[in-house]
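Q: How do we represent a protein-ligand complex in a form that can be generated token by token?
A: Start from the inputs.
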Amino acid sequence: MRALVADRSAPGSIAVRDVPEPVPAPGEVLVEVRAFSINRGELRMLGTAADGWRPGWDFAGILKSDVEHGPRAGARVVGIRQSGAWAERVAVSQAWMAELAEGVSFAQAAALPTAGLTALRILRLGPAILGRRVLVTGASGGVGRFAIQLAHLGGAEVTALVSSSSARAAGLSQLGADEVVSDIAQLRGRFDLILESVGGDTLGRLVRMVDPQGTLVMFGNSSNELTTFNVRDIYLDAHIRLQGFELFFGGDPFGRDLAYLVTLVAERKLDPQLEAELSWEEMPEAVERLRNRDVAGKVALTLGG
Ligand SMILES: NC(=O)c1ccc[n+]([C@@H]2O[C@H](COP(=O)([O-])OP(=O)(O)OC[C@H]3O[C@@H](n4cnc5c(N)ncnc54)[C@H](OP(=O)(O)O)[C@@H]3O)[C@@H](O)[C@H]2O)c1
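Then emit the structure tokens for the protein with NAP bound:
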């Protein structure tokens, strides 16, 4: 079969190559892939990967065999792997996939796993959010757009922080952001939960804006800059919690949360914010656009069918 493989001599350091067929391990099933998506973390890994590495976390496609107490062969499903999902076929743990509801396309579904699951799970790391103030940084990006929608659904008062370009704020109010700001200096008051992925100076300034009983979740460093802050700002508010998060480290299997996200999309309570749907042969273009911060939301790549 064919798959996208790291190749430093190719445009975007990625190229379609022939690779061996996947062999499902016990507890895994085979899926014929129809769409996958790209995440900033994959872009970063691609930057340092050795030739031959097989990237890819998120995919959606058609189940090739029955799942015990679950969907049957032929069902449309979405799933997540720790690598190798950018391929014609993948093997996936039965506990790391969910069946698609009618009306949810493969491309929409492929946008959900990494970004949607991250947004859902980081929102669970703070205090209960009903009626509380939640700040989302990197708000125009893939995770940010899911986080705004889910925090709004959960009853929070949501503030979205975008980079200085006001064009990046477009559409975020419609997703549920009560306030959209493009400069930290415009933020007023403290936040019960801050979902932070920009890092650098942004993180350093935001540690002073967590409510004394609140939580700041650090789940990314898109700026790739180091952070400096005065620890006194933390320990003088003794109950502030600085919390790290990594999707693939620990936690429950993803199937149940994926099914929840699919249901929200089917009920039109969650929009996957697909900015572009490209053919998988156009992956170098998708890589370039994400690298240039020219994607507001998600890009899905489609194949087969
Ligand atoms: N820990 C985990 O398990 C986990 C899971 C998923 C994602 N992440 C991390 O979370 C972050 C967001 O992921 P994503 O998939 O949502 O990425 P994305 O779609 O590329 O969004 C990145 C966001 O960060 C903003 N940003 C600010 N400064 C930036 C800079 N110097 N370079 C690039 N972006 C910058 C961008 O704003 P503009 O509008 O100005 O471009 C954009 O809104 C990434 O750092 C990713 O690695 C971590």
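The mean pLDDT is 96. Residues 46 and 288 are 12 Å apart (CA to CA).
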